[in-house]
Amino acid sequence: MNVRALLIAIMCMLPVSSWAQGYAGLGGSADGFEIPQRGYQFEFPKDHGPHPAFRIEWWYLTANLTADDGRDYGIQWTLFRSALKPFETEGWQSPQIWMGHAAVTTPETHYFAERLSRGGIGQAGATAEPFAAWIDEWQMSGPDFDTLTLTASGKDFGYDLSLKAQGPLVFHGENGYSVKSSDGQASHYYSQPSYNVEGVLHLPEGDMAVSGNGWLDREWSSQPLAEDQSGWDWFSLSFDDGDKLMAFRLRGDRGDFTSATWISADGSSMALSDGSTSFTPLETAHVAGRDVPVAWRVTLPDRGVDVEVSALVPDAWMATRFEYWEGPVTVTGTHEGRGYLEMTGY
Amino acid sequence: MTRTVLQALLSHWRAHRLQLGTLLIGIALATGLWSAVQAINSEARASYARANAQLALGQLDELRDPTGPIPIARYVDLRRAGWQVAAVLEGPYRLGTRSVHLMGVDMVAYPALPAIVEAEQSAAAPDPADMLTAPGRILASSELAPLLREQGDLPPILESSALPPDVILTDIGVAETLLDQQGDISRLVVLSDQPRLVPALSDIAPELQRFSPSSQVDTDQLTGSFHLNLSAFGMLSFAVGLFIVHGTVGLAFAQRRGMIRTMRALGVSMRRLVVLILAELTFLAVIGGALGLALGFFIAGALLPDVAATLRGLYGASVSGQMSLRPEWAAAGIAMAVAGTLLASGQALWRLSQMPILTGPGVRAWQDNAPARRLTALAGLILIAGGTLAYLSVGGLIAGFVLLAGLLTGAALLLPLSLSGVLALFARRAQGPVAQWVWADMRAQLPGLSLALMALLLALAANIGVGTMVSSFRLTFVGWLDQRLTSELYVTAVDDQQGQEISEWLQPRVDAILPLRTVELAHETGPLFLYGIVDDPVYRLHWPLITSATGVWDDVMTGHAVLINEQLGRRADLWPGDTLELRPGHVLTIAGVYSDYGNPTGQAMVSMAQLDQIAPGAETRRFGVRMPPEDATEMAQELRRQFDLPRQSVVHQAAMKAQSRAIFEKTFVVTSALNVLTLGVAGFAILTSLLTLWTQRLPQIAPVWALGLDRSQLARLELMRSVTLAALTACLALPLGLVLSWVLLTVINVQAFGWRLPMYVFPLDWLYLFVLTLLAALIAAALPAMRLLRLPPADLLRVFASER
């Protein structure tokens, strides 16, 4: 995953979005925060835990699921950490703000919920070993990063899922150093794109046993956006033949910046540079008072990919403090498959 | 033609400037007092709304631990179980000699506070990092902010118009430092959005109690009766003001009859005349109303600080002492002025429209209209009966006021018949022609004066009634204070530990230490404060019990019974012998009920051992100290020095009493101010009525003058007539006022405050009022009498010469 949630977390630093400083604070200096370094050596399990000296960080899981009746579902579980100051301390005075987003997308509806907390008191946080990330009763935890249980609930939905990793971690960009603009803004970014997921969705119509594939992103940074960039379109696609593609486009006044990672079925990956992937909106839907592209043509000529990506439900709108579109998609064309799409700035 | 007619109509006011002034003053007085009360009420309500909006008090449930603060770990337990709650830490924050309410809210979990939304929407929106991390920011009203700035050692201050005047709002992380309560939470607000399944509270935090909004102190409800009181006064003033308008308009119409006859003879249709007069009256009403608004704004501004002090002292409700001009208030004031003026002019206008085209200007003497008087009296009786019936059948505060309104208006309507009866009695016993003429003349003038006299009756009755209530209350209250405040010193420690130390230190030095421990519980009628007391003779001797079972103190001290205050007793209809459930499963018999003035909430007292069972963690910070009074000052100083206590933490009995009395006096400043104003308005009403009568006076006086009474004699008789009528009215007002005060004490007070007061009478006050009334009547009659004195005899002669 990438810059996507960055704005969300910055925006939500506090109560209401109008308090946010906009992106100005991010564009310029990092105010005593650490900045991602090229050539950083990841250290596990430590790096699965939080990095309070960085401004922004997230644990971002999406999963495409199928119920016993054969219908498609999607779930999202996200924990954002946003630091007001580059340290952590005990008690209410902690400058670490945590935000959780959870969603279930059914073929008909999109349910979502949001949670806010600050660090320092134990209401929300993350630990590397044993691995746990939580806010309120929402939790993603397990003995290690490969074996997890996941739970979240809102007013009218919830889920209890177990996840088992099927392959290695994937590092995006240059060994996990993921560049976000031609000016050089970057983040540390790795994923576990192949979890086997099983469990139960709790929906108003009843409980539903589901299974499928999950994709977990870990990313942290302090100033990853260029000043001209206004939003992004991010795709995580799992093809039926076992290959996977992570690709995003950052929309900027000076032109788009794209980046992608091709993940082979065996787990090996290759970073694809700016311009190698193209994104064309095919169809828009009127969602939450604006027009959002819900069908896309994505091409990656190097790999012979020319697919149409369309939303399972057009109305997968996250009407949270910072609003965005996040939902499951189906893939047709040269490759068939499923995936998740996120769009911001519309 | 319209223009010509208008010019003719308006020419009257040019010729009668004084009359115009009177009319405008009448409208302005009516509107002014009414709108002053409205302004005070709406200002207070806006303040409550602001206070309640903070943390949506009164809308959301709350979790509290009756035994003390909630630790952060408990909050996290609840959160990790799915409970969506927001933490609040609050307490008094000392600012020099006054104390303000400091409220720390977890602004991350509960961001939707009006003051926060306002702050973030302002041009200089604060950086969240500054709000949440040291030193933080504090929000306060523009009234409080300068005071806070003087403090110096506080975090930077942000001004907010969404906050009540004595509240500091800040993040909980800042509050725990300012209140020196690290890791404490006062209460948890249960947010409206909860996840689909949450475990029961008893499984996670069994020590927490859930309070629903209905069991919380609702300022609006508490103070409702106070505002109803003010509104009733405002309406009374409005009604009295309308008497003036009625009198003046009647006068103007009588004087314009000739002009109107001329205009009609010249072909102006009655319809056009009526429409134009209506327009004229509306125009005058708008001007008078505008004057009234200015007056009302001024009066309200002058009274508001006292009202604010009262509400704070009586209900703990915080009201801004600053007035703001609200457009809807101004609109309502003008509308009231226009409606009132038209209402008061209705009769005159109706008579005009029914006037035959060539009727001459009214010169006919007043005729005795006995059937009309009897009809009015009958209506009065019906109103009194209706009010009584309403109260007996419905009950409650509103019905109490209906009873009051019925009594007052009914009695006012009975007045003409009563006065006429009394005058007839005098007339029958009168000796000599002059005396007989005077009584008969007075009786003949009654219809013209009766409205003004009714106004006087109402004003006097209100004065006597309210005065009696206030004085009775004062007498009871002072006696009660002596009973309640029996300890020489009252000490407040910083925390339980210091409380313990102080108690140990005091033990060998004083006669007795009476711990004052309290805990807040919930009862169906609202919050219930439970006090624990130790067995000390002072309670048995002095505690102001209203009613009790035998062996009350033994039962309480052995832990078998509970005492409750009168408010709780009346609200929940609990009396000795009944039982009270203090906590689930903890039921005690009520052994007695004690009076507890000035306290809006329910209260109960048990033995200290019982309190320890019910709420083991109740704080032990406050004590009463019994000792020889002469040593108290020295001991207070010693205590302050020994434990480094601030001045306010060791209070003398005398200081406490003085403060309570000061609050009491402030409570009724507004009432007495309105009282005086109403009386003034009534005096003015008499003046206008007399002036109206004056126009028709000459034909009645001229024959008497011709028979040999000279003008100075006639002038004296004029004065005497006015004074006599006022005196008679005052005599009739006395019983009415006493009935009024009885209703106030036994009906309104019980409904509004939850206590019933014994009634005391103060004849000297009545005498003072009586003299004041005679003086007012004398002044009101002075102008007509002076005119009479200076009247050229030629004018009197002319009565016999022509039709004038």
What are the defining features of this structure?
heterodimer; A: 346 residues; mainly beta; AttH-like fold; 13-stranded antiparallel β-sheet; ten-stranded antiparallel β-sheet; 2 helices; globular; disordered N terminus; B: 804 residues; alpha+beta; ten-stranded mixed β-sheet; eight-stranded mixed β-sheet; 20 strands; 62% helix
Q: How large is the share of residues in beta strands of chain B?
A: 5-15%
Distance between the termini of chain B: 29 Å
Largest sheet data of chain B: 10 strands, mixed
Number of strands of chain A: 23
Rg of chain A (C-alpha, Å)? 18 Å
Tally the structural domains of chain A: 1
Mean pLDDT of chain B: 81
The CATH superfamily of chain A turns out to be AttH-like domain
Residue runs with pLDDT of under 50 for 5 or more positions of chain B: 361-367
**Biggest sheet of chain A, open or closed, and with what strands and sense?**
13 strands, antiparallel
Give the overall silhouette of chain A: globular
If interface size is counted as residues with C-beta under 8 Å from the partner's C-beta, which chains form the largest one?
A-B, 32 and 39 residues
Name of the top-level CATH class of chain A: Mainly Beta
Radius of gyration of chain B: 33 Å
CATH architecture of chain A: Beta Barrel
Helices of chain B, by number, come to 25
Provide a descriptive summary of the structure in words.
The complex is a heterodimer of chains A (346) and B (804). Chain A is mainly beta and 346 residues long. Chain A has one domain (4-21, 46-343): AttH-like fold (Beta Barrel), CATH 2.40.370.10. Chain A has helices at residues 4-11, 24-27; strands spanning 56-67, 72-83, 96-105, 110-118, 124-127, 131-135, 138-144, 147-153, 158-165, 170-171, 177-179, 186-203, 206-221, 229-239, 244-252, 257-263, 269-272, 278-287, 290-300, 305-311, 317-318, 324-333, 337-343. In chain A, the strands form 2 sheets. In chain A, strands 1, 2, 3, 4, 5, 6, 7, 8, 9, 10, 11, 12 and 13 form a 13-stranded antiparallel sheet that branches. In chain A, strands 14, 15, 16, 17, 18, 19, 20, 21, 22 and 23 form a 10-stranded antiparallel sheet that branches. Chain A is globular. Chain B is of the alpha+beta class and 804 residues long. Helix content of chain B is 62%, strand content 13%. Chain B has 25 helices and 20 strands. In chain B, a hairpin with a 2-residue loop joins strand 16 and strand 17 (586-594). The A-B interface holds A 13-16, 18-21, 84-85, 91-93, 95, 97, 113, 116-118, 121-123, 134, 136-137, 153-158, 202 and B 72-73, 75-76, 79-82, 84, 106-109, 111-112, 116-117, 120-121, 125-129, 131-134, 171-173, 176, 182-183, 193-197.
